[in-house]
Amino acid sequence: MTINSTSSRPGSRGRAAWISLSASTVIFSMKVGAYYLTHSTAVLSDALESTVNVVAAFAALVVLKIASQPADREHPYGHGKLEYFSAAFEGGLIFFAALMIIRESIDALFQGRTSHQLESGIIVVGAAAVFNLALGIYLKKVGEREKSEALKASGAHVISDVWTTVGVIVGIGLVLVTGLQWIDPVVAIAVALNLAHEGYKIVRKSGGSLLDEVDRDVLSDLAECLQRNRAPGIIDIHHLKIIRSGRFHHVDAHLVIPEFWNISEAHGACHSFESQVVEDYAFDGEIAFHLDPCKRAYCVSCKMADCQVRRGTFVKQPPFSVESLISDPQPPSETSESIYG
After folding, report:
1. Closest alpha carbon to 252 in 231, 237, 273
2. CA–CA distance, 194 with 185 (Å, rounded to integer)
3. Residue 296 Cα distances to 32, 53, 150, 198, 310, angstroms
4. Measuring CA to CA, how many Å separate 115 from each of 42, 98, 109?
5. Hey, CA dihedral for 229, 230, 234, 240, is it positive or negative?
6. CB atoms within 10 A of CB 130
7. Contact at 8 Å (CB) between 147 and 209?
8. Is 131 exposed, middle or buried (0-12, 13-18, 19+ CB in 10 A)?
9. Distances 200 to 89, 153, 283, 336 between C-alpha atoms, Å
10. pTM as predicted
């Protein structure tokens, strides 16, 4: 088993979380100010969403500090799964904010509330949208680079907040042009429905990560990594599973190697292969291989030039793919017709 955790940079993630909290607080203050200027229900809906941003940014700051701690005896896979809780918490807050916005908007619709100073409101929320866009792009960039689910979820939410603000600005503009005050709460309801959908998607994705749901994008990257570092004697890999703990991944799989290798040869070759793959892998992690002897069933796909027990002529070595990695073993000699035509 080979472990790598040298590429993790908790300082970069913590700095991003602090920037997110500070910027979200400023943007929230701007939107609250815009609401007191306009008394617009649509602007209030935008401000309520920014409340979620502030709370979520604070939660992410705490979670990232804990999640960056190394594995210990009580937490052998590290603390990274807390990032999924942070993302799920943020999604839940977004969904709750959507319900509050709908309630407030329905009250405003039936009470016939009147908004004013809409021109000033457009300027303030427009400036807030520009700041939010810059923050969202920054958080997504750092989240992708650092493989942080908490930062990626925050970045996605902040960018969706920008589109919410754009919708609010369009709604306020329609009120200015038409003079129809009912447009304002209707726009707020539309914003809330979009928020509820975004919140659901974040919770759904985070829940899948907590349950180690198969992520085909991650598997595809790992398959390419395994293929790039494949060496003679690495005959086949199957029954592969990944336990994800934030940016730390535990990979478990069955590795088929030549049956005539002794323990020392098998250990040396597997350790070298594991080290190269882990070093090349986009995430921090470890690999644990269960070794299976080839039993001469893989001769047609084995490149071993000095094989001592070869029973068949080498034809072709199929590359690793997502399906071949996660499926049951299918020795080429048993499926040669389907593989080689």
Report:
1. 237
2. 14
3. 72, 59, 47, 52, 7
4. 10, 21, 12
5. positive
6. 12
7. no
8. middle
9. 11, 12, 26, 45
10. 0.66
Q: 138-156 pLDDT, tens per residue?
A: 988 888 887 777 777 778 8
Decide if 246 contacts 283 (C-beta within 8 A).
no
HSE-CB at 94 with a 13 A cutoff on CA atoms is: 30
Per-residue pLDDT reduced to its tens digit, 276-293: 999 988 888 889 999 998
- All structural domains of the chain: 2-210 (1.20.1510.10), 216-340 (3.30.70.1350)
Task: Please give the Cα distance from 256 to 295 (Å, whole number).
Answer: 9
**8 A C-beta contact, residue 164 and residue 197:** no
Angle, helices 149-178 vs 41-67, to 10°: value is 170
Sheet containing 284-293, strands listed edge to edge, beginning at the edge strand earlier in sequence: 2-4, 284-293, 248-257, 236-245
Q: What is the DSSP letter of 242?
A: E
What is the residue type of 256?
Answer: V
How far apart are alpha carbons 34 and 39 in whole angstroms? 8
Alpha carbon separation from 167 to 32, 160, 200, 229 (Å, rounded): 17, 11, 20, 49
Return the structure tokens found at 201: 């998607």
Pair 91, 76: CB distance under 8 Å: no
